[in-house]
Amino acid sequence: MEILKTYKLYIGGQFPRTESGRSYLVESPDGKAIANACLASKKDVRNAVQVARKAQSSWAAKTAFNKGQILYRIAEVFEGRKAQLIEEMCSLGASIQEASQEVQIAIDRCVYYAGWADKYQALSSSVNPVASSHFNFSVPEPMGVVGIVACQETALSGLVSQMLPIIAGGNSVVLLANSKKPLCAITLGEVLATSDVPGGVVNILTGNVAEMLPTLAGHMDVNALCLAKLPTELMVSAQESAIDNLKRCIIQTQDFSEASAQGMQYITDFQEIKTTWHPIEQLAGGMGGY
Amino acid sequence: MQPNTSLTDFSVLLNSVAPVDQIGSLERIAKIQTRSLKGPAKLQGLRMALSMIDLTTLEGKDTPGKVRQMCYKAQHLHDQADGLPTVAAVCVFPTMVGVAKAALAHTAIKVAAVSTAFPAGQAPFEVKKLDTLHAVEHGADEIDMVISRGRFLAGDYNFVFDEIAAIKELCGSARLKVIFETGELDSLDQVKRVSTLAIAAGADFIKTSTGKIQPAATFPVVLTMLTAIKDHYDKTGQMIGMKPAGGISSAKIALQHLLLVKEVLGEAWLNNEWYRFGASSLANDLLMQYQKQLTGKYQSASYFSID
């Protein structure tokens, strides 16, 4: 007997059903029923943000090296799930070749950002020349909880390319999956749950983006938004809702299959720069400096 | 004031305490937990819960500065929002009563002091007496005493009764809250028994826990204590206050507690004269939910003062 898999949400390291009890049918392009997925609600968004907030500080406090190791571990676990991911993409209309390519991109991105995890800090920090008796330096700090609306065209490569630099930088994430192709997003949850990423660092919701986004964008405890290409109306209203707590909104429209869709700037997009003025003694006759 | 009961009546009373119907309690609670307050009723509930808080700091590292800061918060919960009440009281150690009293002069906010060698209660009676007197002399409006759980569990009910009655006498006009530390009492029957005992000995309020031990104010325990209060009220017409403390940190749970009180005891108890929440971090969650109701947006702790 064939048992169809139930795709649930990924919140706080667990796989709960939506609190609303709703689901929707995921269909292939030719209209065949593939799976039932959760139609997450506003309250699921709230719950996800709550656990993301709780998880963020201890995730950020892990050493940069350790975060890199964990990102690398994601790549390893991905490798073992290749067949499943390809099958899921093919069931939703991708060719085997396209699907394999997407999975390969996802895995490569993990390795790429694993490398960056302990390097972007040095490259985006500076010691600043100031005209007073201070040692003045700037360092990047994670923004906190970041809301992501996943790329609505790709099933996997987009959302992985969006998510990795954000968590590599010590943020936690609430991710709204591609509405039409949510399967790989939840499988990504399974990958994360078994790859040493602490529960709550990444939370994945499936459902209607237009329904969930206003809540996420208006949530005062979300510090930034990473938006993929969306209908203009939705994009504008999200940015308007984001005004109250001055959320940073980054709109990503790049082609996620390109090599240019990765880079340190995607990490620093979600960093705040903290500048410290540390008083120092000016030594008589000494050179200015530190 | 005299104890509510004489000693002979008291042993008859304790023997008459019926066992608690645990399954029934759980069902009753489950029913209440499925209810959800919405709209104006929720706003009213949140304001009410705020007005019932005993804002608490009971740590070894408490300083006068910390207590003053908390007293400020007690008066100014969230100045950006209009129409908010103040909390009912602040709850501190006896050594901090003077500081709190001074900080809250000319306000209606009461000062409660924990007493009788809080939280363990393991001290000679002389020490407990001095502890209480110190608080009363510095102007405490309410005394939160702990019972001797060891003696109670050993069946030495007279000792516990006498201790409560003696402290009650020292309180003068201050109201006495008796803390059971239900997390150490093991069964609901024991909770019912100790509630009956404390009420008989002169408690003005009965209180679940010190906040130092888990589990603390669980719903079955609170329901059991409310039932004891109701039994006493039905028999004598005298109202006794209730204070759940420990572990109530979300608005949702606080509102469910209010529903439970309304259901068991009725509206007469729905004010801070007769009902309190002992909490240190509940206030901000209530405030955040209150703002959420007003603005429609989920809130962040970053925009509320530290409590």
Verbal overview:
The complex is a heterodimer of chains A (290) and B (307). Chain A is an alpha/beta fold and 290 residues long. Chain A has a single domain, classed as Aldehyde Dehydrogenase, Chain A, domain 1 (3-Layer(aba) Sandwich), CATH 3.40.605.10. Helix content of chain A is 42%, strand content 19%. Chain A has 9 helices and 11 strands. In chain A, helix 8 links the parallel strand 9 and strand 10. The longest helix of chain A has 28 residues. The mean pLDDT of chain A is 94. Chain B has 307 residues and is of the alpha/beta class. Chain B has a single domain, classed as Aldolase class I (TIM Barrel). Chain B is built from 12 helices and 8 strands. Chain B has an 8-stranded parallel sheet. In chain B, strand 2, helix 5 and strand 3 form a beta-alpha-beta unit. In chain B, helix 6 packs parallel to helix 8, helix 8 packs across helix 9 and helix 9 runs parallel beside helix 10. The longest helix of chain B is centred in the last third of the chain and has 18 residues. Chain B is globular. The two termini of chain B are 36 Å apart. The model of chain B has no long low-confidence stretch (mean pLDDT 94). The interface between A and B is small, with 10 and 8 residues.
